[in-house]
């Protein structure tokens, strides 16, 4: 079984990681855990005229690693193996695409991410994932 856990560094995303850790013993076989962080594409428009691609890629890696840090630490402390990936794009589309590419059996995610004004303007990532994927999605409060 493959379980995808999208992580954005929020408390809600961490609750999803903690839920998986606390309930993994209920599964018959140990699942393959996949962490995914999606970075918004900042290299739009004329940005590339002023900042080179290597700097932009470094920014994505740095921000993604920071967002994944708590989730990775929790999984390491629980001695659970996992893989992680940092993607660039629109979060909901990237989550649905990665779930399909990796043929995951379930997506486990917090009911909302970093939210706030961004969620009001862009819509809920969770809501969009639910509409974009045919994979089972478990929402953790």
UniProtKB/TrEMBL annotation:
A Pfam family it matches: Usp
Signal sequence coordinates: none
Residue span(s) of domain UspA: 2-141
Entries under CDD domains matching the protein: USP-like
Superkingdom field: Bacteria
Record-stated family: Belongs to the universal stress protein A family.
Name of the protein in question: Universal stress protein
Organism: Ferrigenium kumadai
Phylogenetic placement of the source organism: Bacteria, Pseudomonadati, Pseudomonadota, Betaproteobacteria, Nitrosomonadales
